[in-house]
């Protein structure tokens, strides 16, 4: 009887541990889903002539001009229409917007321009949901990148990050620490497919012996994905900039 009770207690502990593990996994998945909420668009106008959508806090306007009705086809509960043109416009105030916001806009429009003629991809309303999803995916990723840069500008000192600067679509990170006797600038080249591809980089050494070889060894250990830039900075700080003793 004692053995049976002991076995039962062991099984209960294992079940509780598994439940705890699954709950943590569920919470992690939920956080990722919230982070990658791809419904980034809002409708500001929908008429028989056109639909207007906005992205990224109303800083990007996407206009879809409708053509003639398609006989016998419906879109939702309405008749389906042909699409005759699709256009994008930036409404960002370039003079007042922070550098991170300007970078995000550049990357999004880099993606938009790389896709060629949008109307060819979306000849009728049936294709519009997929187009909105594709744009939302890029907007969501770039928006998170902008938030990461703002985080580093505010809290970079925790990672021995002296300065964060932006030049077109490049982010320049100036690291400096007396602990490891090192000062260097890391320049990362960004694109609209962030964070699904590794970032090309260069290193300009100013003090110490940390160069491209040392940085490359560290960055090769950083998995792609959510908060890629922040994790890169954190690992550089942890592996190269703390007291080597």
From TrEMBL:
Picking any one GO biological process from the record gives: protein localization to kinetochore
> Superkingdom of this entry's organism?
Eukaryota
Which positions fall inside the Knl1 C-terminal RWD domain?
3-145
- Would you tell me the Gene Ontology cellular component terms? nucleus
Q: Which InterPro entries match?
A: Blinkin, Knl1_RWD_C
Q: What is the protein name given in its UniProt record? A: KNL1 protein
Q: Origin organism of this chain?
A: Casuarius casuarius
Q: Lineage of the source organism? A: Eukaryota, Metazoa, Chordata, Craniata, Vertebrata
| Gene name as annotated | Knl1
